[in-house]
Amino acid sequence: MASDILSLPAPPPEPSGPLPGRPSGDATSNATRLLCAGTYLDPLYRATVIRELLTHRFRVVAPSYGYDAVPVLAHALAARRLHRARLAVLGAGLVVTSVLVGTGVLNAFAGWLTALWLVWVTAYLRRVVTLQTLISRLRGRTGQAGRTDGFDGSYPEHPLLTAELVAKIDREQMSDGSLVRYGGYKPFVGAGEPVRRWSTAELLIGAPTPAFEHHQRFPGTPPDAVVNGQEPKRREVIAFTAAEITAYVAERMTADLRDRARASERIDGLAVERSTFTTAVTTRLGAWEPTRDSRDDGWEDRYGSQRAYLCVRVGSWNQELVTTAFVGFDLKGNTLHTEFYSYVLAPIQASFHLVDRLPAALSGRLLLRVAWHTLRSTPEAALRPALARLRAVLPGLLPWRWNKTRIRVLQPPDTSEFRLGRYADTVVNRGALTSIREMATSDDFHVFFQETDTIKYTQIVERQLLQVVRDFLYEHNVDLAEHEARQTNILNSYGDNNNFVNNNSGTVNSGTQNFHRGSDGGQGAGTS
Fold it and tell me: Which residue has better confidence, 179 or 304?
């Protein structure tokens, strides 16, 4: 696949620091805390977070389900700054040592020992500062009811974390009533792995009048069945729109599962939101980031791919397990079409939980152990960071690369006879491909009950949805025979045919289909 190099001017500097009064969202959740810790524990994850949210900020940020991306980016930048500070001090020290050796102040042996000491002491100080940050700011503390608390969502300041960038992330990561622009195959980017899906199409035929309601009706019987040689008289269906049934379902689901439910039956982590999903492809290379007044302009949607869905999200295990159901309604040809897609964000990978097993404070014995382990690893790590830094810095020293951010953008394949694609405009896919939460998701559940909770919340949301839709159709004088038949078939598709997170090759009748957790479902697979 061909690729173009997209060079965009760097944005002007902005005042640094967190914005006062910015919406917190899930900034204090356990998921946010563990993701912040992961930026110090995993250098690959740290670099990926910075690439997705900062380097590729021309791309839309994926919706944040159960976490806040701003503190994660801030800690990733702080961890990178600490790493670069160590390299800068080490480089300056080595230069001074070389000058002293060259002028005869130090002999060769003393210069060699000084260089080794600089390598060790800078690595040691970086480890100590990292440990102190993890222990004092990101280590979990068990509070009341066994919950992990003590994390207030605050984050360090950084010159690159500008007010404009924070506002952009806040605007795009909020999924309530927003327009989600995706860049891959899967529109529900950020929601994790697919769990279950089904769809139905129901004819909107008027309910029979009371004179015919005493006749026994069986599931599957055509609604226009002749009774005693007479066509049944039917009520007139009260017309409605897809937006009206969506609003009704959203209000009822929120009330029945959270607001009006008893305290013991309430789902506190429930969020019911309406979002619109569309692609984000453009060939007009303009400013780095559109202005607030024009940020919705310049997008191309040539195929009418925009769809509206109701997102019913349940965050459990302190937002480490997020189950989301996407429900869509459409009316075509006197037919109500209903879609149901269930996804799960599995727990954060176990290596990030290391922060909770760190000691409560730095002690003299611990500092001595860190010093010894740093000394043992110094020969191995002496040149690797410096070489990696040189590979990243040297290309930017070229004059034509100053104040530029170069991004390799994959282009559609050019199979034309004369390779005419070389003269076409560059296609830039600005949609979200994945989220920083999905990149840190564990391949397996950590606890058996996390898997069962995924099944439980999927079943609860699905059952409530079917009942609420039934009530809505009843209030609009729609014959419920077909809906009840399909509802029974959907609910009976559990059991042996229930795949959920396990791979089961069973099939399901009547428009239902179950999926096991795939390897690429949560990554928003696609090319930019």
Answer: 179
Provide the token pair at 488. 């029974």
The partner residues of 331 in beta bridges, in order of sequence, read 336
At residue 72, the 3 state secondary structure works out as: helix
Is the CB of residue 118 less than 8 Å from the CB of residue 93?
A: yes
pLDDT tens digits for range 186-206:
899 999 999 999 999 999 999
DSSP string computed for 365-387: HHHHHHHHHHHHHHHHHSSHHHH
Burial of 527 (0-12, 13-18, 19+ CB in 10 A): middle
pLDDT at 345: 95
Identify whether the C-beta of residue 323 lies closer than 8 Å to the C-beta of residue 457. Answer: yes
DSSP per-residue codes, 247-272: HHHHHHHHIIIIISS-TTT--TTEEE
B/e letters for 336-347, b = 16+ CB within 10 Å, e = fewer, are bebebbbbbbbb
Q: Rounded CA gap, 283 and 300, in Å?
A: 8
Q: Can you give the pLDDT at residue 211?
A: 59
pLDDT digits (tens, 9 = 90+) for 335-388: 999 999 999 999 999 999 999 999 989 899 999 999 998 888 766 655 565 566
Q: Domain 193-214+240-345+447-485, CATH 3.40.10 — does that match?
A: no
Could you tell me if 316 and 464 are in contact, meaning their C-beta atoms sit under 8 angstroms apart? no
The span from the CA of 524 to the CA of 186, in Å, is: 5
Backbone phi, psi, residue 384, to 5° = -60, -50
- Domains of the chain: which residue ranges? 10-170+351-401, 193-214+240-345+447-485
- Which residue has better confidence, 21 or 234? 234
Cα 9 to Cα 3: distance, rounded to the nearest angstrom: 19
Q: Give residue 397's pLDDT.
A: 59
Q: Residue 203's closest CA among 482, 471, 472, 488?
A: 482
Torsion from C-alpha of 197, 198, 199, 200, nearest 10 degrees = -160
List pLDDT tens digits, range 392-421.
666 655 555 555 555 555 666 777 777 777
Distance separating alpha carbons of residues 148 and 140, to the nearest angstrom: 6
Token code pair at residue 77? 């930048």
DSSP 204: -
